[in-house]
Amino acid sequence: MVTSRDVARAAGVSQATVSRVLTSANPVSAELRERVLAAVDLVGYVPHAAARTMKTGRTGAIGAVVDDLASNPFYPELLQELSDAFDDLGQRLTVWTAGSRSDAAIRSLRQGLVDGVVFTTVTPTSTEFASAVDSRLPLVLINRTLDDVDCDQISTDNVAGGALVADRFAAAGRRPAFIGGPADASTSRQRLTGFRARLTELGAALPPAPWEIGDYTHDSAYRAMQRIIAEDAADAVFCANDVVAVGALDAAREVGARVPDDLWIIGYDDIALASWTSIDLSTVRQDARRMARDGARMLLERIRSPSSPVQHVRLEPELVTRGTSGR
């Protein structure tokens, strides 16, 4: 039977170093990690998960709670980045979809089935989540965040992202509107806050309506855009994510509105399809890769050092101008 001693000999390191790499107990250099993992492949070593758990008190498994895997491409893209990040760190990833599954993830953490949990779509409604935060369990919030919650969080600076769109609309003298997502989603709320605040700062007109609040779906955005066009309420629409923007774009094209000549549309996220020629969507880019990798690092640091200071990280957004808002 191949053992970790065989890996150590093949890599030219100590058995303790092999253990550190395979359990992520302590950070090692990238070069040393690659050498050990190459030796693992070379000798065909397969760590015994149960034995490792008994020895270290850790499972090597991380939970992730995601949402909208079927309807919003941003979440599969973020999940892929999370999977790659934890895989590079020697961790297995277990995935739950949001809703009632959020509480299932917390229960798995309490039962020792996973070492920590990443939340990508948290809202302040789960009593299990609040209890887990109070218990100082290893959690990290990625993408959506919660104000006044004492746990590690990383997101794009959504207020700044909204301000970027306001700058673009105001510079062109456009009449703005906003189509949002759920009122309790930090992403939609913060993007609207930044958008309105910058328009006010620039002295741009704020339309009395419609500041539409929907459910982050194509259909709700489609209906909202129909109302905006019917009332001639705006000629530049900021959408809280790219799925919403595509719904708005479809509604505009349905009635023959010329985009961008008659109407501008800007989304948020910069999912892969936003750059497709047939869509060519202007949007605010989130760095999903960095968000995932920094979030993974933060969670493993929390697992290793439960009492370390909480981190709140905001990444800079970037406005990507394509055909739906003029180049």
List keywords for this structure.
DNA-binding; 44% helix; 12 helices; six-stranded parallel β-sheet; alpha/beta; 327 residues; transcription regulation; Rossmann fold; 434 Repressor (Amino-terminal Domain); transcription; Transcriptional regulator, LacI family
Write up this protein:
- This protein has three domains: 4-55, lambda repressor-like DNA-binding domains (434 Repressor (Amino-terminal Domain), Orthogonal Bundle); 59-156 and 287-316, Response regulator (Rossmann fold, 3-Layer(aba) Sandwich); 158-286 and 319-325, Response regulator (Rossmann fold).
- The chain has 327 residues and is of the alpha/beta class.
- The chain contains twelve helices and twelve strands.
Q: Summed up, what is this model?
A:
The chain is of the alpha/beta class and 327 residues long. The protein is 44% helix and 17% strand.
